[in-house]
Amino acid sequence: MDQPIGRGLTAVSWGPNRIDLFWVDRDGALLHRSSDGSAWSEAESLGGTLASAPTVTAWAEGRMEVFAVMADGELWDRYWDGEAWHAWESLGGELDPSETPAASSWGDDRLDVFAVGRDGLTWHRFWDGARWVPWEQLPA
């Protein structure tokens, strides 16, 4: 791992001996590399033009989702389904692009993501296994 990292390094593990790293390159694209416990893959670009640093969570073995706020103030995500990366999709919001979102999962097919809005408040959205539930403002 002798190449420059860039900014916004984050990591996740979705199974034994597996680590995935994500960061933003100098052009704003999301970069990814992984380790199987014995070797690191070459870095690959997952595209996008991230304003925030990325965040990532694993939601089942072989499954992970990465989130970032783009310059438009919306939360965008890409996910790995165990075989391929799916395209970037917008999850909307009116978020502060200078703030890094946070993501977590407490079970298969459950994802929670939190982000600071342009209003300075904390906003939450989650995947319930079938759909993304609309944004909700968390109490102060």
Can you lay out the helices and strands and say which pair or pack?
Elements: E1 7-12, E2 19-24, E3 30-35, E4 44-47, E5 55-60, E6 63-69, E7 75-80, E8 89-90, E9 102-107, E10 110-116, E11 122-127, E12 132-137
Antiparallel strand pairs: 1-2, 2-3, 3-4, 5-6, 6-7, 7-8, 9-10, 10-11, 11-12
What is the highest CATH level, the class?
A: Mainly Beta
Low-confidence stretches: none
CATH topology: Neuraminidase
Give the CA-CA distance, first to last residue. 41 Å
Order of helices and strands: EEEEEEEEEEEE
What class do helices, strands and sheet pairing give?
Answer: mainly beta
Number of helices: 0
Gyration radius from CA atoms, angstroms = 15 Å
Quick one: CATH superfamily? Fucose-specific lectin
Number of strands: 12
Average pLDDT works out at 94
Strand content: over 45%
Helix content: under 10%
Largest sheet: 4 strands, antiparallel
Shape: globular
Instruction: Give the number of domains.
Output: 1
Largest sheet, spatial ordering of strands: 1-2-3-4
CATH architecture designation = 6 Propeller
